[in-house]
UniProtKB/TrEMBL annotation:
Family stated for the protein in its record: Belongs to the purine-cytosine permease (2.A.39) family.
Entries under Pfam families matching the protein: Transp_cyt_pur
Subcellular location: Membrane
InterPro entries assigned: CodB (IPR030191), Pur-cyt_permease (IPR001248)
Designated name of the protein: Cytosine permease
Annotated membrane topology: Multi-pass membrane protein
Chain positions covered by the region annotation Disordered: 1-20
The keyword Cell membrane is annotated on this UniProt entry: no
Lineage: Bacteria, Bacillati, Actinomycetota, Actinomycetes, Kitasatosporales
Amino acid sequence: MTTDSRTPAVAKEPRVGTSDALDEDYPLERVPRSARHAWFNVAVQRFGQLSDLTQFLLGATLGAGLSFWGAFWAFTLGSVILEVVCVFVGVAGMREGLTTSVLARWTGFGRYGSALIGLVIAVSLFGWFGVQTAVFAAGLHSLASGVPLWGWCLITGLGVTLLVLRGFRAMGWTAFVTVPAFLGLAGWAMTVEISRHDMGDLLASPPFGEHISIATGATIVAGSYIVGAVTTPDMTRFNRSTGDVVKQTLVGISLGEYVLGLAGVLLAYAVKSSDVIAIITASSGVVGVLILVSATVKINNWNLYSASLGLISAVESTIGVRLNRTAVTIVFGVLGSLAAAAGILDRFTDFLTVLGVVTPPIAGIMVAEYFVTKRWRPQLDASRAIGRLPETEPSWVPATIVVWSAASVVGWLCDHYQWWGVPALNSLLLAGFGYIVAGRLNLVHPHRELPVEQPAHPAAAREIEAAATAI
């Protein structure tokens, strides 16, 4: 192992047009304690990510291919995967106050490996932004067909972009407004539509579409939010304690997956269709469609937000340029809106399945490094105490790339050939155990250590220094 001494690990003044401590959302530094929020404020946003039209689409998709109890077990297995990932990765993010892509530098991936993760996150959530924008636009198009679907895609996508420009606090207020409206509508839709049918008949309904296995269903469930689960630190860095992370995860995922997902299954059985717009129109009319499509905003803003953070970290890691979050958000928002207009929703299920087996290994490796192997944990602990980033970071870690690649391939093979188990869980566990074994065999080494460019005025460090001075 060698150390790159080309540039000193000292603080530099912010470059012109870059994002530094003045950015309220701290994309490349630790979130100070004074900027943390009560658990309920963050939990509403977590639940908001799982309470939208897409969750009904997910339930309807499983209802078309599985019996009710088959869908129940698919949701159970998929939800367990998501909760485990969210809790462990989220606790790491809360402790360190760092975004997913930045935290990955010291949790097994190194500078260039984290850049790759940033790109994976950016591309994946860029795709999700397009998917959600298309769902939003389809709902509005069903109400006002005078505007073409592609026109609604542009209008809704750019509208969400303007919201994300306001940052974490504005997105929180959006969730507080839309979540209660969505829950009220979900209860109304269930009451109106299911009251027309015998509950026993609905629970015994056979699938009305192409059959899928429970394992495939679980992978679809995990895939529906696995990128959001892996990027949990982007949200939990604003939490105050481990208990807060656990509470918001259990409440958000349990309600979002079980209650809303299974409601989508029953509604699909009731109207014999996986067309979500048709389901909601049959259940609650125009007002229902309007509320539900509006509810996509609270998850789509996080897609765009985390995609922007991922790209910012990737670019800073590779070429040392600190992009402005506002500019990145605008570019992603415009391109994502155009992608939605081009019809990205058409391959929805395939898109989820791919995410369900490729992304989980990232979380498996991060959790294994942070909680078990701890190769770089001392550096994180020492720097956290002073509110700064570690002085050095690994360039890249060969063992990590091998483990990640192998786990992803195994996950894909499990899904493609219907091997035993849940592909998403298989790939996550294989990556985690593989990394731990590599650590035990002393194979986890960086290619070299690189100096870290510290922010000129890190907010967390200033907060700690001010507290020490006051004492």
